[in-house]
Amino acid sequence: MNVLEGLQSIRVRLVENGAAPETLALVDTIMQRAALPAASSASTQSLLQLARMLARSPAASNNMTVYNDLMRLEEDLQSSAVQYRERLEAEEAKPVPKTKKYYRELKEREERKSGT
């Protein structure tokens, strides 16, 4: 995922959470840096990773309001990730329907057993 796109998504989530203006200013500042041509190839694995990096920034360390906003966002992202993983596991746990070939072979094996 592109860092700039991730930061834009994080900003939207922070606004939805009612984050402090200082928190939004921090994200805006980082977004300006990420928009520079030298940083255009920067990527990240997830929004959660970006939120953690923001929470470790000096601006967050020096301002408890910013830090708390970012921690709330991180918690939301973690719970979303857990729900997503649970949904995937539930889908994988569903029984796979058997093919006609399976039933045909089963019938042939049964006929062979009863015939001998």
In percent, how much strand structure appears in the residues?
under 5%
Taking the sheet with the most strands, its summary is:
none
Helix/strand order: HHHHHH
Number of domains: 1
Assign the structural class, choosing from mainly alpha, mainly beta, alpha/beta, alpha+beta, or little secondary structure.
mainly alpha
Number of helices: 6
Q: Kindly provide the radius of gyration, computed on alpha-carbon positions and rounded to a whole number of angstroms.
A: 25 Å
Shape: elongated
Mean pLDDT: 90
Which parts are unreliable, with pLDDT below 50 for 5 consecutive residues or more? Answer: none
Q: For the terminal residues, how far apart are their CA atoms? A: 62 Å
Fraction of residues in helices?
Answer: over 70%
Number of strands: 0
Which keywords apply here?
mainly alpha; 76% helix; 116 residues; 0% strand; single chain; elongated
Model description:
The structure is a single chain. This protein is mostly helical and 116 residues long. It has one domain. Helix content is 76%, strand content 0%. It has helices at residues 3-16, 21-34, 47-55, 58-62, 64-93, 100-115. It is elongated and about 80 Å long.
